[in-house]
């Protein structure tokens, strides 16, 4: 009995020690509902949003949904009850969160869609690079790489998706295959890496390289998958450049692979600009002021605000990173947050 | 039925999982283009190494009549420990030791130590405090993954020290050394289970814990050792995982627990305890790996792969259930 009580107190003491309350005078609290903390883009988005929103006077609290739609729905319900200044939502599921968004908006709490665009219901603001557009950029790069190798866009591409239950990867696939359909001589083999788990991607690459030794290009939907693909290539005795590699999201590991010569192209999502745009417009969002369409300079990137059926939407261009520009500090994968302070847009 | 026919039938039933593996390999080789080649079979064995080693620890605990849901997270913790210390990119600290080969035993020791500590905590709570193994190890599954996330901050460690990575690249008879490590573990622990008092006592405990205790065997001590072993072995599988992926990500190993359970059950280990042998578990792991490889090569739509995977595993488990029925009829 004594041992059990001691164990209970010990466990509770450790758990409570990790709860650190924040006391600060701010314009209000913004809740960021992040889909997962198991990839570098998402953890990067937490620190970027916290930094930029703090600069414009808001306190940020982050809730992680562990990639579970139901958990994110519960978080939305809980946060609505807390009446925050705004909710920034990167939805686990693009459609399932619709009722929760509507409930928050009806309660007068503005909902900002971050990174993952939800078009089925209006929200206060949307800041995205566009997942389908990431696929388009990847397709342009694939065309260039295959043309450089064969003289025209032809050959075989292994496309390693993320988890097939994640609309994010399916949208990139949609954009990529839509553009690549223009090149009938390109064969695309698509295989999902379940749960975005890196060793699954390694296994896929190892199997496909034996079954299809003529693969020209491997396109992984996240940089951390490319790390395992490179490990599989190394184990198969390949050298950098033997097979062309490309991945998306612009994570630090992807940029490291470019420097080492393994990865040809990384399609980056402009994480810093996406987060800075949310901060820059937050006063207008909270005060329910009009956000006028037009071009806006967001920490050096040209963002285009349009008024869509689902509300004001800023789209920031993704970029292709290769050896020539890999060290540019504007890429979030270099982990050098902008030194300029984000200012609220008047 | 003649004694000879009966012996043949019993032999087939005792090794049914191996025959299932052969049948599945033959079927995939016939119907899936590019499946039948040595490179693919080497891949199947190589891809089985991490899951295989993890399944050994899980099988030991299940044979002892308990449960360990923490092995997947423990493997991730071990991989992240090795990754943070010995990777040179990402969040890796890039620690180097001279001579370089020293990093191999040191990293292996630290990985297994991390696993062993979690196993010891599980063992203490389950055996000494008489708490339910399912709940305790479920909690460990969650908090250990939480530690991985907390220490990594969600970021990756990349570029494992070449001296350690060597095990994933160097090949012997066409197989990487990581696969040989897994095979060695299966041989060693099969010997331990079949030929040592520890193995026999473990089976006895799983069959009837009270009777074993009354026979004068130190049940509690053996159970605590088993949980520590399961943790350390999961740590070893994490070390292999870090080698295989040349680093560690916060979600590394996600989903392996269920595959490990499937492999153990297909391999003939009873979830009630007291029944099972490790060679069968290895066949179960190879069977799952063969199915995964088939799915990788079939080029089916992404949305359907989990359905196919699940149905093939279900078919394997149903065949195993059929085996048990036939075995009972023969008895």
Can you lay out the helices and strands and say which pair or pack?
The complex is a heterodimer of chains A (346) and B (331).
Chain A lengths: L1 H16 L10 E7 L5 H16 L2 E7 L4 H14 L3 E4 L8 H9 L4 E4 L10 E4 L2 H20 L4 E7 L5 H14 L5 E7 L5 H14 L5 E4 L2 H13 L8 E6 L2 H8 L5 E4 L2 H16 L7 E5 L2 E8 L2 E5 L3 E3 L25
Parallel strand pairs in A: 1-2, 1-3, 3-4, 4-5, 5-13, 6-7, 6-8, 8-9, 9-10
Antiparallel strand pairs in A: 10-14, 11-12, 12-13
Helix pairs in contact in A: 2-10, 3-4, 5-6, 7-8, 8-9
Chain B lengths: L2 H12 L1 H16 L6 H26 L7 H16 E4 L12 H26 L4 H20 L4 E4 L1 H8 L1 E2 L2 E2 H19 L1 H11 L1 H6 L4 H27 L1 E2 L7 H11 L11 H21 L6 H26 L1
Antiparallel strand pairs in B: 1-2, 2-5, 3-4
Core attributes:
heterodimer; A: 346 residues; alpha/beta; Rossmann fold; 2 domains; 8-stranded mixed β-sheet; 6-stranded mixed β-sheet; 10 helices; 40% helix; globular; B: 331 residues; mainly alpha; ABC transporter involved in vitamin B12 uptake, BtuC; 3-stranded antiparallel β-sheet; two-stranded antiparallel ribbon; 14 helices
């Amino acid at each position: 009995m004594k041992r059990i009580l001691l164990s209970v107190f010990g466990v509770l003491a450790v758990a409570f020690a990790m709860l650190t309350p924040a006391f600060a005078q701010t314009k209000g609290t913004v809740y960021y509902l992040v889909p997962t903390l198991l990839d570098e883009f998402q953890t990067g988005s937490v620190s970027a949003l916290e930094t930029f929103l703090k600069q414009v006077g808001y306190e940020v609290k982050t809730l992680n949904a562990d990639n579970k739609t139901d958990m994110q729905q519960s978080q939305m319900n809980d946060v609505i009850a807390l009446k925050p200044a705004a909710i920034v939502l990167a939805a686990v599921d693009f459609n399932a969160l619709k009722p929760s968004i509507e409930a928050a908006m009806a309660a007068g709490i503005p909902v900002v869609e971050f990174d993952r665009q939800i078009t089925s219901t209006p929200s206060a603001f949307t800041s995205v690079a566009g997942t389908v557009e990431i696929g388009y950029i990847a397709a342009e790069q694939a065309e260039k790489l295959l043309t450089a190798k064969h003289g025209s866009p032809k050959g075989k591409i292994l496309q390693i998706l993320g988890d097939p239950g994640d609309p994010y990867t399916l949208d990139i696939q949609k954009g990529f295959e839509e553009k690549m359909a223009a090149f009938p001589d390109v064969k695309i083999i698509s295989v999902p890496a379940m749960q975005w788990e890196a060793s699954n991607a390694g296994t896929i690459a190892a199997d496909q390289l034996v079954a299809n030794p003529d693969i020209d290009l491997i396109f992984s939907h996240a940089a951390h998958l490319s790390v395992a693909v490179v490990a599989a290539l190394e184990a198969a005795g390949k050298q950098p450049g033997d097979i062309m590699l490309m991945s998306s999201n612009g994570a630090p590991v992807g940029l490291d692979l470019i420097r080492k010569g393994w990865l040809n192209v990384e399609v980056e999502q402009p994480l810093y600009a996406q987060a800075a745009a949310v901060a820059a417009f937050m006063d207008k969002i909270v005060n329910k002021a009009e956000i006028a369409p037009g071009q806006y300079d967001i920490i050096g990137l040209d963002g285009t605000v349009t008024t869509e059926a689902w509300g004001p939407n800023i789209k920031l261009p993704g970029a292709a990173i290769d050896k020539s520009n890999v060290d540019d500090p504007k890429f979030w994968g270099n982990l050098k947050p902008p030194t300029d302070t984000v200012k609220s847009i008047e | 039925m003649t004694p000879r026919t009966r012996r043949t039938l019993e032999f087939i039933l005792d090794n049914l999982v191996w025959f299932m593996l052969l049948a599945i390999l033959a079927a995939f080789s016939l119907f899936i283009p590019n499946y039948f080649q040595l490179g693919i079979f080497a891949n199947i064995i190589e891809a089985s190494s991490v899951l295989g080693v993890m399944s050994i620890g899980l099988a030991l605990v299940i044979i002892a009549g308990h449960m360990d849901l923490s092995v997947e997270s423990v493997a991730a913790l071990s991989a992240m420990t090795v990754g943070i210390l010995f990777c040179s990119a990402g969040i890796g600290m890039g620690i180097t030791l001279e001579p370089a080969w020293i990093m191999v035993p040191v990293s292996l020791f630290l990985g297994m130590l991390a696993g062993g500590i979690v196993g010891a905590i599980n063992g203490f709570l389950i055996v000494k405090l008489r708490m339910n193994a399912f709940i305790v190890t479920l909690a460990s599954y969650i908090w250990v993954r939480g530690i991985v996330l907390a220490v990594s901050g969600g970021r990756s460690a990349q570029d494992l020290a070449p001296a350690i990575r060597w095990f994933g690249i160097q090949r012997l008879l066409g197989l990487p050394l990581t696969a040989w490590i897994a095979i060695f573990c299966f041989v060693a622990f099969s010997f331990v289970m079949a030929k040592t008092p520890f193995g026999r006592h473990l089976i006895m405990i799983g069959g009837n814990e009270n009777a074993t205790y009354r026979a004068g065997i130190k049940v509690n001590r053996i159970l605590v050792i088993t949980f520590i072993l399961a943790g350390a072995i999961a740590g070893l599988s994490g070390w292999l995982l870090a080698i295989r992926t040349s680093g560690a990500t916060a979600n590394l190993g996600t989903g392996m627990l269920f595959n490990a359970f499937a492999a153990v059950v297909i391999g003939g280990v009873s979830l009630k305890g007291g029944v099972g042998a490790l060679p069968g578990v290895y066949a179960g792991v190879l069977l799952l790996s063969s199915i995964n490889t088939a799915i990788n090569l079939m080029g089916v739509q992404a949305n359907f792969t989990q359905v196919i995977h699940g149905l093939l595993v279900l078919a394997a488990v149903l065949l195993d259930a059929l085996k048990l029925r036939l075995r009972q009829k023969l008895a």
